[in-house]
Each structure stands twice: as structure tokens, then as C-alpha cells.
Amino acid sequence: MDIHVELEARETAWQIAPGRKVAAWGYQGMVPGPTIVAQVGDTLVAHLVNNLPEPTSIHWHGLRLPAPMDGTSLVQRLVQPGDSFEYRFELPDAGTFWYHSHATETVQIERGLYGALVVLGPNEPTFDADRLFVLDDVKLDRHGNIAKTALIDRHSGREGKVLVINGQSEPEYEIAAGQVERWRIVNACSARYVRLSLGGRPFRIIGGDGGLRDQPVTVTETLLPPAARVELAVGPFDDEGAEIAIESLPYRRTAMKRPRRDVWGKLRVGPRASSVASIPATLATIEPLVPEGPIEPTRTVRLGARMTLHGHDWLINGEQHHHDAPVKVGELQVWELVNETGMDHPFHLHGFFFQVIAIDGAPVVPTSWADTVNIAAKGRVTIAFRPDDRPGKWMYHCHILEHHAAGMMGHFEVVR
Ligand SMILES: [Cu+2]
Fold first, then answer.
1. Would you write out the chain's pLDDT as a tens digit for each of its 416 residues?
2. How many angstroms does the Cα of residue 227 sit away from the middle of ligand 1?
3. Which residues have a Cβ under 8 Å from the Cβ of 387 and sit 6 or more positions away?
4. Can you give the pTM of this predicted structure?
């Protein structure tokens, strides 16, 4: 089935709280843009109309689509003001994805040009309710307008003090006692890491960037770096009337910022209701790409920095906007991602899911597919992927938007 979506990028008044409007940019006048829901195998036909004062494009984050549909300036001419472009591609995988501008991202995503895309598979677990939360932080100036990019942002990445879920600050939700909900969460922040907690209560992680994980795992917190997604089973709770904070715990991603706890919203436990939720013990089969044993990287990607007169440049293998070697369709890729800086970086690979197979050289068993992974300060993460037959130009980059803009990205070709 074809899913048709109109995405007009234009100026809009973003109501972030009752009586509080911010001049923003959104798709269809909304922040986030419309949530797109489709089934595996559907074809998405998205018609982007640019009514912004500057060029734009859309990147479909996490989707295994043909290279010409990826929305980067490597594969398409940016859509000029007054022009339009039709994205058309099949949706091969179930999961929680998002779409966002891939032009002047430090401005365009910050102003609101992002939205979520949910692709449903044939055998989804049963829940009492489904929710989608897109997290963002907004940096306002003293007049209440979205602040201009500051020099310090180029170094540490931009964080805003106004925390919003689905475009609203301090939202409140209710979950019936006894019920279990599926929460899909997208971190759309420019640079903020979200160490998510629900008032310390246990919840189950059921999926990541690329759909369901192998088995549910019970935790009391989970770290979402910028651009990452997670799927949770929340509940059941027994204490009717309780109020649970949807919060982020202190996380030190850089020595330059003081970690703190923040409250994003509130979850109230409502009157008891019966439950039909059923979560199987095995959710998906994740075949390891790399057999157990010594791991030989096929490529090393070094994330670095250099001081310049105008602040920091952010580098891959010693250069800004690194031109990396091609990879061949079908050939196993084992990339060691080495963070030489004193700050965490969320690494995002376009177009292909990977498995995390080692952290700091210690092998880990892959439990899910990812397109974004945090590389801790001075840390190393080894990933594996096998490029399927979608030749063309692709990129990888730090998803702290200011770091990407300041050079921490690489581009490479997938060749037959
Ligand atoms: Cu970075």
C-alpha cells in the first residue's frame, strides 16, 4: 500500500505551553511534524514542499532506503524555497524511526523540523496502549525566541532549558493501574543525553533503533544519546493515584557541563483496568554478524578534535568531512570507532543497521540492531554491518548537530 504524506516546511507558531508560543519552523505547521504510521512493505510517498526562507531536505533516520532518497547533500540538490521534492521508497523494517531536516541542521532541527515514523511488523506484541514520545530541548533567548547558535554550542553542543515531549513542556499522562503500555521514545535533542528514569521504577526495554530486541530486559534507567530510539514496556503499576516523574538522571557527557536531574513530565497511575498485554519471552532473533572469537576490524574511524582560532574543529581520522574509502556490497564491515576526545559522541550511520560487537575491546553479544551508538569519552566501540545491495553515497557522523556541522562526519560509497 502507498502511504501519502504531505510535508510542507514552513514558519509556524509553536505552542510549547498553554499561552506560550514560540516562532518556529515545522512540517504542516506542527512541532513535531505529523507522525507517520505504516506497515512493513508499504511504500512511503512523502511530498516535501519548502516554504521556508532557505533550502532544506529530509533525512529518514534509520531507514534502509535507496541512497538517492537519503536526503543528504551527497545524493540530492537541496530543495530551494518555493520548490518541492517527492521522497518515495519502501519500508522494509518494523521499528521506531524519525525524519528530520538534513540542511543547516543546527538551525532547522532546533526550530522544529523533525517528526516520527512508526513502522509496524506482522507480529507485534500486544499492549493495552501505545504511546510515542519525541523528546526535545529548546534554547530560548531572553525575549522567548529560539536562540541563535552560540560559539560555545560549537564546542559542547547546544542544550536548551525548556524540555518538551511531543512539543509540549511539562506534559502529564495517565496509565491505568494493572495495564502495560508500549512506549516508543525518540531523542530529537541537538546534543542532550537523556538518562531516562521513571521515578526509579522498573520498566522493560523491548526494542532499540531497529525494532524489537531479542528479549525484554528489566531496568530502572536507560541512556538515550541524541538521535537514538528505545521501545519500552511500562507498567503494570499497582498504586492507584501515584505520581511518577518522567525524568532524566545526571549524566556526565563532557567535563564542560554539570550533570543534573531534570523532570520532563508526569505519569499518574489512574483507576485499575483489566489488561490484555502479552509480551513474549523472545521478541526477535538477532543473528550475530561476527562469530565469537578475536575481532579483526576492517576499518578504524577515529573521532578527534583540534583547536583553531574560531574554537573547535571536529574531525574524523584527522580531517573535517572525511572522505572515507568505499565498501563493497555484501562484504562484512567491522569498524572500530575510537573516541580520542574527552567528550561522548553519538555515532550515526546512515542507511544501514549495525550490531555493537565490542565495547572498549571487550566482546558483547548483540541484542538488537542500531543506527546510533554512544562512544564514551576516550572509549572505543566496535560495530559490524553487511551492506546490502543499495549502492551509492552514504555518510556517518556525530549526531551532536554542532559537531556534525563542524566536521565530525565521513562520507563513503557503497559499490557493487
Ligand atoms: Cu560529537
1. 999 999 999 999 999 999 899 999 999 999 999 999 999 999 999 999 999 999 999 999 999 999 999 999 999 999 999 999 999 999 999 999 999 999 999 999 999 999 999 999 998 999 999 999 999 999 999 998 999 888 788 888 999 999 999 999 999 999 999 999 999 999 999 999 999 999 999 999 999 999 999 999 999 999 999 999 999 999 999 999 999 999 999 999 998 888 999 999 999 999 999 999 999 999 999 999 998 878 899 999 999 999 887 778 999 999 999 999 999 999 999 999 999 999 999 999 999 999 999 999 999 999 999 999 999 999 999 999 999 999 999 999 999 999 999 999 999 999 99
2. 12
3. 327, 328, 329, 330, 331, 333, 352, 414
4. 0.97
Q: Could you tell me whether strands 114-120 and 36-39 are parallel, antiparallel, or unpaired per DSSP bridges? A: parallel
CA of 301 to the centre of ligand 1 (A): 13
Residues with CB under 5 A from ligand 1 (ion): 345, 398, 400, 403
Distance 408 CA to ligand 1 centre (A): 7
How far away, in angstroms, is 381 Cα from ligand 1 center? 14
CA of 85 to the centre of ligand 1 (A): 30
